[in-house]
Design a protein that fits this description.
Strand content: under 5%
Structural class: mainly alpha
Largest sheet: 2 strands, antiparallel
Oligomer: single chain
Shape: globular
Strand order of the largest sheet: 1-2
Number of helices: 20
């Protein structure tokens, strides 16, 4: 079947009432967490992993994707009205959008962000639908050596792309790889690093690790720094509608932002933060009103917002076709697939085609839902900013704890005292997540290392067994060689992109008065 037929079948799946409900829940939650500073889509998806592990896989993954898209939409509200970006991708939106809000043009700033996000999300989702099959056909030719090189590329990508230090990223990755070794060796049947605890024979639960690192660790970090807000919210003055001049100045930035964001999001070591800064730089160069930049130029909101939403769809290209996560949220979504016994990659399009195409088609539906939710209900989202932060993080702790108990109710004994083994791991990894944040180590490489580590080990051992121990088999094809070279390049590419895009922009505008 061609792409149109597959996408049509996916739409039939996405338009089922149960999947529509999942999508609506996802985009609503995503918008809400995008609005709330410090509560991102990665944390939200991690919290929902233990709640959804017995639900329908298709609906749950549609909800996770809706949260991802909704988070990109909602982040603009906080940046424009509060000058507090929830994620790095929203920094540029804060630069120009908050100045527009202070000048009484917060409504048009929010409108161009929402409409630009819709346009970019729609075009980028169609791009995902048409590019993914070609990538899958190419990836089906991979053998054990190519898969090992691909896993190595994933390791180098997440180590270099997350955080400000490649060395710290590699350290986080090593922690994840070590955790992935715990359990029964699939080839020899020997227990590894289990310390004699039967609860560890099946390995560490990815769900428990994700919830602990992203939810518990974040909460402890916020409490330790007393980051409980007190920010001033800019009110929306005048109409939310854009003028004819606003439309004229926004439509080309929307298209340029999409063209920049989608391919960069699909690249290993890309991401929404890089694409948004590059889009901002491009709009400043193309604008007929360069003197307004740094003072509230609408192009500086339209382009970057389109870029970061297009990059969200671009991120799903390597995730679905190759199993490569390029953002923290993609890493948690990878854990979500694993939770349901699914492995993203080329075989996923063969073994679970209805699920994959239903997921892709649901993104089109989610875009329409988000447009309806964001423009008329801006006032409602703004009210979320008044929720006391202590209440918010206390709720996260309760939700994480109850979810973990539901997913893993096993108990162990310290002497005669029964304890919940799952809660013990949750607390231990939560403290680990706090320590990683405290000393500036990225979180996502830990999750990626634990998920992909056993797969990389299996591919390596299979390749060496086939070649009777000859290590040169890892370089026997041009595909493997290219992947090895890309893995080496992945260490340097993020640094180049950041200094080329983000560094240049911040040097020019980072000293402006807020």
């Amino acid at each position: 079947m061609n792409t149109f037929e597959l996408l049509g079948q996916g739409l039939l799946t996405a338009l089922q009432w149960s999947n529509l409900l999942y999508a609506l829940i996802g985009v609503t939650l995503g918008t809400a967490v995008g609005v709330l500073p410090g509560i991102g889509p990665a944390l939200t998806v991690a919290l929902l992993l233990p709640v959804t592990y017995k639900l329908d896989p298709s609906g749950s993954l549609i909800m996770f994707a809706g949260i991802y898209y909704g988070g990109m939409y909602g982040g603009s509200t906080t940046s424009i009205l509060l000058n507090t970006p929830g994620e790095s991708a929203s920094i540029v939106t804060a630069l120009e959008g908050n100045k527009m809000a202070r000048a009484g043009r917060g409504g048009p700033a929010l409108a161009t962000a929402a409409i630009g996000s819709f346009v970019a999300g729609l075009l980028a989702t169609l791009g995902l639908a048409f590019i993914a099959p070609s990538v899958v056909k190419f990836a089906l030719s991979f053998g054990p050596s190519e898969y090992f090189a691909l896993m190595l590329l994933a390791f180098m990508t997440v180590s270099a792309a997350f955080g400000d230090s490649t060395l710290r990223g590699l350290t986080s990755l090593v922690i994840g790889l070590a955790l992935g070794l715990i359990g029964i060796d699939q080839l020899t049947g020997q227990a590894r690093l289990t310390m004699g605890l039967p609860n560890l024979f099946d390995g560490i639960s990815v769900t428990t690790l994700a919830v602990a690192l992203f939810a518990i660790g974040e909460t402890l970090a916020v409490v330790a720094t007393h980051a409980f807000g007190g920010e001033k919210i800019e009110t929306i003055k005048g109409s939310v509608m854009m003028t004819r001049e606003d439309w004229k100045r926004s439509w080309m930035p929307w298209l340029r932002g999409t063209a920049i964001g989608f391919p960069i999001g699909a690249m290993p070591a890309g991401g929404a933060d890089v694409s948004s800064f590059l889009s901002y730089s491009a709009e400043r160069n193309f604008s007929k009103h360069p003197e307004e930049f740094g003072k509230g130029a609408i192009e500086g909101v339209a382009g970057p917002e389109a870029a970061n939403n297009a990059s969200a769809a671009g991120t799903l290209v390597p995730l679905l076709t190759l199993g490569l996560p390029t953002t923290a949220t993609a890493a948690i979504m990878l854990a979500g697939f694993q939770q349901f016994g699914l492995q993203p990659g080329p075989l996923l399009f063969v073994t679970s085609a209805p699920l994959v195409w239903g997921l892709i088609a649901s993104l089109l539906v989610a875009n329409f839902m988000l447009l309806v939710l964001n423009l008329p209900l801006i006032g409602l989202w703004v009210k979320l900013l008044t929720i006391p932060r202590p209440w918010l993080y206390a709720g996260i702790l309760v939700f994480a704890t109850l979810g973990t108990i539901g997913a893993d109710g096993s108990t162990s004994y310290i002497g005669p005292v029964p304890i919940s083994f799952g809660l013990g791991l949750l607390l231990a990894f939560g403290v680990l997540g706090y320590l990683l944040r405290r000393f500036g180590y990225p979180i996502a490489p830990v999750v990626v290392g634990m998920i992909l580590g056993p797969m990389a080990e299996k591919s390596l051992r299979q390749a060496l067994q086939i070649s009777q121990g000859d290590p040169m088999t890892l370089f026997h094809s041009w595909i493997a060689i290219v992947l090895w070279l890309l893995a080496l390049t992945a260490v340097l590419l993020p640094l180049y992109l950041r200094y080329r895009g983000k560094g240049k922009v911040l040097t020019q505008f980072g000293t402006d008065e807020d």
